[in-house]
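ESCALATION

Customer reports they have been waiting on this structure for their group meeting. Please prioritize. Original submission:
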Amino acid sequence: MGIRGRLVLLIVGVMTASLVFGLMNLYRVWQLNHERLTDSLRKRAEFGAIAFDQWVNSQKEPLAMLAEVANAPDGSLRLEGSNLQAVLDAHPQWQSIEIVSGSGSSLVTRSKGELPPESVLDSILKNAKEKKTTIVASDRTVNASEPIFTVGAPTPSGGAIVVQIDGQAVKELFDEVELAEESVVAVMSQDGQILYRRSSKDVTVTSEVLGTALIEALGNDRNSVIETESPFDGVNRVYGIARTEISGNVVIIGTASDRFYDPLWQQVYGQLRINAFILLAAIGVALLVSYSILRSLRSLKTATYMFAVGNREARAPQTDAGELGELGKAFNWMAGQINEREEQLRELDRLKSEFVSNVSHELKTPLTTIKTLVHVLDNGKLDDRERKKHLDIIAAECDRQIALVSNVLDLSQIESGKLKFEISDADVTRLLTELVAEQKTAAGLKGISFDVKLGDKMPTVKSNLDALRRVFRELTDNAIKYTPDGGTINVSAFESGNDVVVAIEDNGCGIHSDDLAFVFDKFFRARPNESAGDDVNSAGGAGLGLFVSKTIIEEFGGSIVASPSDSGGTIMTVRLPRERLESNG
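Update from on-call: job pushed to the front of the queue and completed.
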């Protein structure tokens, strides 16, 4: 999977987790609100039941007093019509008052309007006899929208005093109950008959429809909260139900279930919309970011491919900042290093080729000279002086071959890391004295003289005597080679701090200023200063002597540098420590 796919997958995963946690949090909030709403419904139903009980009690007390005096002990009627009329006038909401005998016949009646239907009277009388308590019933035959309440109180003789009360009284009782859309407040009898009902939407309620399901859901509990479909209008509601203590009626306050669930779903849909928007925006940003990243990577890939197939000038664009910009810079730096290394390798290959050619020349020329002189000596026509001269030349050429072969062998050991020396005390003064004596013969052929200045009581150095002899012979050979006929070579040695310094100076043509920094490089052959315009091939040798010399001196913890002299020649300065903490070998 590519960067773009991984970014999109990451964003989708993060947004999914965020959505899940968001929905879980919404559900917890909804649960909390649901508990608060249901608790509110339960408490409101309890308060309604208490209020209805108080209202029933306010009607029961005068009826109970009337029931006590309604019949004499001998069963004769003690209340006359005038008395009942006075009681009816004292209660403005009472519509009628009637005393009914145990057989159901009306004994005394006073009314402001119509009397209760016979069926209501029969029900009141029956329940009063059975339950010996005040009975509340409702009648909608007169006004279907507002019931008339009928309250019956049993008399000692087995009859009942029945009062009709305007439903407005109960309506006023529940007027303070606020009803939201699809909400309802109702009072039901114990058998499920609606005594009073008010809803936000008017619905005609008939006596044939009972709320027994709601009563059964309450069971023997005093109060409860249930969710069910209304048997009266078919609306699904959450009901708070509470039973009254005095009359045993049930007060119901219901709120449409949508009020519970709609806020949750609205929040869920809102959360989904927000997450969808954020997801789309995040994917868009991810695509833009991935495009920017991939564009830079494609540019880097193209540059890498072009560089790999041979276009050494291919480079990554430097327009990006941050990590991608750093990556491009790193690639360009790497490409530059590779190009530089390849240039060095090509130069090294060229120098190796020249080295092979020079070594072949360096081997062939002395061998030719030796072979020629051997033939001359073989003729036997030379005097002793000439014979000695030719033998000296043969010896010198042999020394050149031995030095060349030694340098080649040393180069092999240096590159393999096997160049090691036995360390011992070396007397520099003695070594230089012997070396100058050996080199006077070769120098004398060109009329070159040595000016030797050695300090008194020079300390020894920790090194290898044979290796040092090879180094100083290489330096004096070069001095003789580049010093003109009749010139002078200065050899000096002195102490400088903890070092012994050896300087070999010639007054020859010197080394070209551009080549001074490279004279100790492998296969490098410096140009004489007087031939600055000539090619490097004008310099002789194989380009190994100074490289091997520098490696040997550094093995002993010293250093060697080349610098121009005041006379126009070159000074080779060697510094060797007087003491070494550890030795090789």
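Sent to customer with the following note: The two ends are 58 Å apart (CA to CA).
Escalation resolved.
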